[in-house]
């Protein structure tokens, strides 16, 4: 189960909003993937396993096709790649960072993480089946757009036009609904992911753990 919670943490961004708006915004740049663009994040965790650990993402000139969708390839310093795509309905991501955990279903999972038209209080969800310790578990990732054009400060850097998405992650174990975690994700227009905090809950021990990623620096080409 610990590995499952780690998976949920990696599937999925954080900090406090300075202002909030009901703005409806048709966006095309919440996931820039221009070649050579970089994003450097600091990762921390409540269990002290990570303390200001540095992760660097670099957009490449490579793409992969999945059905009719073309994903841009972003290298990560943690090993493996993350794949991003923007289509008419919204933004999607997938990646081999998850497949390293040994759960085959995740290598083909495309997460719909942000709609193209941002309307406050809009909701959407992703569903997948994970086989864990021989048991097939249905996992639901439910999202709510809390803010469509917020302001946010991350590590002393101020961002505007930030989409704030909250999420809950649940499964069903032996017929009982179980919450696996909650999170808040922040995406800045023209930059992409700038922050997230995610709290996972062990369904057996009820022990919680928090993981955070904060954008330290970036270069958009």
Overview of this protein structure:
- With 221 residues, this protein is mainly beta.
- It has one domain (2-215): YmcC-like fold.
- The protein is built from 2 helices and 15 strands.
- The protein has helices spanning 2-11, 96-99, and strands spanning 17-19, 25-26, 38-45, 53-66, 69-76, 81-86, 90-95, 111-115, 117-118, 123-132, 135-154, 157-173, 176-188, 192-201, 208-219.
- A hairpin with a 2-residue loop joins strand 4 and strand 5.
- The radius of gyration is 17 Å and the shape is globular.
- Residues 9-27 and 97-101 have low confidence and may be disordered.
Task: Summarize the SSE layout with pairings.
Layout: H1 2-11, E1 17-19, E2 25-26, E3 38-45, E4 53-66, E5 69-76, E6 81-86, E7 90-95, H2 96-99, E8 111-115, E9 117-118, E10 123-132, E11 135-154, E12 157-173, E13 176-188, E14 192-201, E15 208-219
Antiparallel strand pairs: 1-11, 2-9, 3-4, 3-15, 4-5, 5-6, 6-7, 7-8, 10-11, 11-12, 12-13, 13-14, 14-15
CATH class: Mainly Beta
- What is the strand content? over 45%
Rounded to an integer in angstroms, the radius of gyration calculated over CA atoms is: 17 Å
Number of domain modules: 1
Q: Structural class from helices and strands?
A: mainly beta
Write down how many β-strands occur, each being a DSSP E stretch of 2 or more residues: 15
Taken from the alpha-carbon principal axes, the silhouette is globular
On the 0-100 scale, what is the average pLDDT?
Answer: 82
Helix/strand order, N-terminal first: HEEEEEEEHEEEEEEEE
Q: Could you please say which CATH topology applies here?
A: YmcC-like fold
Largest sheet: 13 strands, antiparallel
